[in-house]
Design goal:
This protein has about 325 residues and is α+β, with helices and mostly antiparallel strands. The chain has helices at about 5-30, 35-55, 60-115, and strands at about 115-125, 135, 150, 155-165, 170-175, 180-185, 190-195, 200-205, 220, 235-240, 250-255, 265-270.
């Protein structure tokens, strides 16, 4: 277009119209009368602009991509850190809740049996002391722990203290083959000796070979002279199998211990024996038997069946 007076007037007119439209659009805000036209233009020309921009400005696109990638990476790293902190907190809370539950059960047993206990945490397992079934706890002579003290947790008998250091002690678990404890049957008072068998049930030899024992019967510790190494009344386990007596002087039982020896964390050392034998009061409540459903069958007589006393005799 040549630079004429008409062309200059047209340029000025177009500029004035453009400023007028901008002013109307700004004052209209979200209800601008030109908003519909702008959206339609964006729908038509937007893809074209993106394509042209990608073709003519690859450097700008690369810089933008790197910048966005960095921002996304920073956001991702921040979220990962926050998630790690949250997971650690939740994990710690779960562990603390589990420990509080264990401690609560142990204190309940101590209260029922009137045992004076010193709480401790398991810090090592038997591999540090050889091949025996032992644990190391974080309480020792400085905490009043002595050799041949009973160790229990919220489920029952854990073992006895064998070695004591200033701040730690070693506990021989009831599952160890060298472990033996005097036992008493609930209610019947039949006496015996329980021995560990590793990861198998405890083996109990009853002194009375004719004792009437059945699966599900329960045992507690009988207790030792002067209450060491064992105090009386600590739950030991439940009879899982009874060998036939066969006329022997003793009778052999196999007992599933209450304590899970592979999942020990919080334990208590009995530093003060009860004033009197708690007998069976520390045993957990017996599980309630599951009721057997009763099926009632109702027979409905057929519509074609003859009434009582109205049977026809075949000729």
């Amino acid at each position: 277009m040549r630079d004429t007076r008409e062309s200059r007037l047209l340029l000025v007119l177009l500029i004035a119209i453009a400023f007028a439209l901008i002013t109307v659009d700004i004052r209209g805000g979200e209800d601008s009368p030109v908003d519909g036209a702008r959206q339609a233009a964006a729908a038509v020309f937007g893809p074209i602009e993106n394509g042209v921009s990608a073709a003519v400005d690859p450097v700008g696109n690369a810089v933008s991509a790197i910048r966005d990638s960095g921002e996304r990476h920073d956001r991702l790293a921040t979220l990962e850190k926050e998630n790690a902190v949250l997971e650690a907190k939740l994990g710690s809370d779960d562990r603390n809740r589990s420990r509080l539950k264990q401690l609560d059960k142990m204190l309940k047993i101590a209260g029922q049996g009137q045992y004076g206990i010193k709480g401790a945490q398991v810090i090592a397992i038997g591999a540090a002391q050889g091949f025996s079934w032992t644990i190391t706890i974080d309480a020792g002579a400085n905490d009043g722990i002595k050799r041949d003290m009973t160790v229990l947790n919220g489920d029952g008998l854990v073992g006895r203290v064998t070695t004591v250091g200033p701040n730690t002690a070693t506990v021989l678990l009831a599952s160890d083959p060298d472990f033996t404890v005097g036992t008493r049957m609930e209610a019947s008072d039949e006496l015996g000796f329980a021995s560990g068998q590793g990861d198998r049930p405890l083996r109990v030899e009853l002194l009375n070979g004719k004792a009437q024992i059945k699966k599900g019967d329960r045992l507690v510790t009988f207790g030792s002279q002067a209450d060491r190494p064992f105090v009386p009344g600590v739950p030991v386990g439940v009879v899982s199998r009874v060998d036939p007596s066969g006329g022997d002087l003793t009778r052999t039982l196999y007992v599933t211990p209450y304590v899970s020896f592979t999942k020990l964390d919080i334990v208590g050392v009995v530093v003060q024996a009860p004033a009197k034998n708690p007998r069976d009061t520390v045993l957990p409540d017996k599980p309630k038997p599951t009721p057997t459903p009763t099926v009632t069958v109702t027979v409905t007589p057929s519509a074609n069946a003859p009434a009582d006393g109205q049977f026809e005799q075949e000729q």
